[in-house]
Fold this sequence. Notes:
The protein is mainly alpha-helical and 262 residues long.
Amino acid sequence: MPLPREAFFALVLSAAAAVGAAQAQTAPSATDQIAREHFVRGRDAFSQGDFATAAREFLQAYELSRRPQLLYNIGTAYERLHNWNEAAMAFRRYLDEVPGAPDRAEVESRMRMIEVELQHQSTALQTPEQSSNTRVVVVERRVVAPAEEPRPWRIAAWVAGGLTVVGGGVTLAVGLLADARYNDLARGCGQTARGCDPDDISDMDLRQTLVNVGIVSTSVLAAATVTAFALDLLRPTPAAPSVAAAFVPVSGGGVLTVGGAF
């Protein structure tokens, strides 16, 4: 319920004018001077949003000067702090001390809104005794994610797949070297009547054997990789366990039940 800036500063000016008029008629006493200092500090604190300090300073100024306009300022500061009881008391005293206040309608409207806030507070702060007959049943069901079990077939698939890649790469490299060596021999000694040396022929046979072994090994590893992946995908998936708990209050305590599937 924000206070219109025009209304607040009009009140501040009227309070300052009242103080100035009193000073013009008679020399200000030490008490009046102190009250004015509290009022000025409260006004500055309010303009800066420090409503707690403003309420305290306005209250001290009122206790020293007894100027009823300060009650309006006190109520407004407490209203900004949501201290509804203090705000209502200050506004009520203001209307009592200033029966012909020009802003009476506005203050009374704000007081009605404060009463609504007080009723909301009273409902929120309902004591446990007032709701002692209410019986509460709390039921909670929680699905507990199981820890993932070891998956040996997945591990085997990754190992076999890695070996397949390595074996295939080695076999390809040996095959390319063997092919290049064969072409060299075919263009060289293979064109002569004497033919190639037995060592060259033995070397080519060894290279061909290595290539054949590599092809077979890579094929076996590839088949093992596919088989392991298939077995991992076909493994049974365990059902996720769930736990249900219920608490039923009874006289002098309660009953807790726990159940579920594991």
